[in-house]
Amino acid sequence: MLKRIFLIVLDSVGIGEAPDAAAYGDQGSHTLRACWNTGKLDLPNLTRLGLFNIEGIGCGKPDPNPIGSYAKMREASAGKDTTTGHWEIGGLISKTPMPTYPHGFPPELIEAYSKATGRPILCNQPYSGTQVIHDYGREQMEKGALIVYTSADSVFQVAAHEQVVPVEELYQDCLIARKMLVGEHGVGRVIARPFEGTWPNFTRTSRRHDFSLLPPKDTVLDALQAAGLDTIGVGKIQDIFAGKGITSFVRTVSNQDGMDKTMGYADQPFHGLCFVNLVDFDMVYGHRNNVEGYTQALNAFDLWLGNFLPKLGQEDGLMITADHGCDPSTPSTDHSREYTPWLIYGPGLRRGVDFGTLPTFGDIGATVAGLLGVEASIDGTNRAAALLVKGEAT
Description:
Blueprint: E1 4-10, H1 31-36, H2 44-49, E2 69-73, H3 82-89, H4 107-117, E3 121-126, H5 129-143, E4 146-150, E5 155-161, H6 167-180, E6 189-196, E7 203-204, E8 209-212, H7 220-226, E9 230-234, H8 237-240, E10 248-250, H9 255-266, E11 272-278, H10 280-286, H11 291-308, E12 316-321, E13 340-345, E14 354-358, H12 362-371, H13 384-387
Parallel strand pairs: 1-11, 1-12, 2-14, 3-4, 5-6, 9-10, 9-11
Antiparallel strand pairs: 2-13, 4-5, 6-7, 6-8, 12-13
């Protein structure tokens, strides 16, 4: 059995189009390969763990003796958004897609929201988050309005200049939306998007905040918490799971901040799961079609990983995965329906186990529970037996 597991989600680092990618308009998407094709991707530590040994990965060179085990993960849930992907990693498959609004939200909903917040509403369309503040930011400041927009994902995003709508008020406005957006309009996330500066140089600040739906069923987090184990959220994890099953958390402002905080937890004697989301891959580079930036962010994570691996002892485990894709080389700025990687490493675990292609991200959560010796009634198959050395029970 293990005592500690670090589960790190490289937000949007997909590894090739899923079989149903065409249904999502994502034919040909391959986030990792887009970075590989720059010729600047340098991932020695992820390579050692077995990233390029994953079957059909379509780029890179496999390590002849990987120190980790590995799999290609196919999403079983309907959708390609952050909430759905993380919930499935935790062992909750969502068969019904969350609602999306390609033509904006219903007028009656926007009218009710304006009345509830006491502010006029601008935009109400799918929009790029950086472009929307450029196009509507001046009017928002002049009118004291809220900019409401969405994307291809199930999100209700609210942007406002921090000097016009203080951040805490913006959060309250998002809580109002969260309470309204239930039932048929139960979007996965309401997102506060504060910005600052002067036109035309508005910039989004790090004080973004997500307000997610409460998961409708238990996940591995609930099972671990019920067993008395620690469940630590780093980054967006607290928001994505609406706090359900989480015993403690810290928010982050960047990938580097998330990596620093995760390194800090490696020096703490907790018992359970440290669940980490590194969002810059998606938010800063994927959605902005910045292939070079995405590539360098992966290189920076790999460099950090080289310092993190020696922190792991015989009772520790590390898992690295993703929640969807966001190919920065395609015309689309939205998430992409892709396979994701699953890398598993621990000094006390077997090496080089090739799990092939697995049918759901839920196997991750089920295996986390298995390796920590906890019974969990969640979606997914417990693969711990293949990872534990002979003589250990799951």
